[in-house]
Amino acid sequence: MQKQDVLVIGAGAAGLMCAAQAGYRGRSVTVIDMGKKPGRKILISGGGRCNFTNENASPENYLCQNPHFVKSCLSRYTQHDFIELVDRHGLAYHHKTLGQLFCDNSAQDIVDILLTECEWAGVNIQLRSEVLNIEKNDDGYLVETNQDTFQCESVVVASGGLTMPKLGATPIGYKIAEQFGLNVLPTMAALVPFTLHDHDKKRFEALSGISVPSLVKSEDGTEFKENILFTHRGLSGPAILQISSFWRAGQAVTINLLPEFNLAESIADWQTSQADKSSKNLLATILPKRLVESLIASGDIIDKPIKQFNQPEINALSEYLHHWTIKPNGTEGYRTAEVTLGGVDSDELSSKTFEAKKAKGLYFIGEVTEVTGWLGGYNFQYAWSCGWACGQAC
């Protein structure tokens, strides 16, 4: 049996960050993980280049039942603190749109920084370790794995959510929370592509690969302005992934396919300057041609010389393209989702330390909690912030 001050369950972003911080405080720390290597989700994130934070991260970029819950950790360890950390390690990175920061080379660089920090802090990492049993005793917690048994003062659950089961995602974190009487909110896939009903899928599957700058709005009024992407199963792209966190089964989404245009005004201009041209050819100057052809073929919009459009037809065409409404069949689920919505109820945890209010010495951080960030580096920043905050206390 090993005696440790802190046992961290999960060698992901939040777990490794927490372990290093606790180690720097002089705590003896072991991180256990079921996988063959640490940081598996980090390695595949951002197309293998890891969108590791966002320069604009703030509490407003997170979904949580208690909107104030994330304020403490995000203010105590900010995106600028993490940028300073990677700068000290000499990470080569670049800026993309909307404040996103990506590695120049590989997401492995972020994992290497975390592992170096853990090494400097004296952290022990044990892989291929599955938690079999955990129980509280007079000295803290007794945790049995398939490799060892640990007696520890503190247990930090950083086991992630249910996304990407091929990487070994399991509900172990939720089970531990429930074992100790903590409420776990229902979970669902988020930041995930939509699938379409068969009739819509047949209409649009030939458009797979077409990207359109759009403004996408959910029924609750939340909206995101980025690209949508047609796929052979449905709709994806940054705007769709963003809105998926706010969508619920049975609801529709409304998509403005021309957010930079006032189509009615454009048609009025065309009727003056290009009156003999067809609506198909003119619309193809501001929308992908294949999309225009598809909408005409399905009868959703009409094709005739632009000079022949009367005002009701102009209004109808404008309404359709500025407020294209579609009801998804569902999502692609945890297989392709970037995060899990729901999880350990934030009301059960200290917002300063992430310790469970009902179980002294038991902490929950990262995706296993009910905090979900927007697409664009926000979830990683939450991992760094809550990992750092927990590491100061566990």
Plain-language structure description:
The chain has 394 residues and is of the alpha+beta class. The chain has two domains: 2-188 and 338-391, FAD/NAD(P)-binding domain; 193-331, Elongation Factor Tu (Ef-tu), domain 3. It has 13 helices and 21 strands. A hairpin with a 5-residue loop joins strand 13 (211-217) and strand 14. It is elongated, with a radius of gyration of 24 Å. It starts with a strand and ends with a helix.
CATH topology of the largest domain: FAD/NAD(P)-binding domain
Low-confidence stretches: none
Calculate the mean pLDDT score and round it: 96
- The tally of domains stands at 2
Q: How many strands, what sense, and barrel or not for the largest sheet?
A: 7 strands, mixed
Q: What percentage of residues falls in helices of 4 or more residues?
A: 25-40%
Instruction: Let me know the number of strands.
Output: 21
From the alpha carbons, calculate the radius of gyration and give it in angstroms: 24 Å
Strand content: 15-25%
Question: Which outline best applies?
Answer: elongated
Report the CATH architecture of the largest domain: 3-Layer(bba) Sandwich
Structural class: alpha+beta
Oligomer description: single chain
| Total count of helical runs of at least 4 residues | 13
- Give the name of the CATH superfamily of the largest domain: FAD/NAD(P)-binding domain
The first-level CATH class name of the largest domain:
Alpha Beta
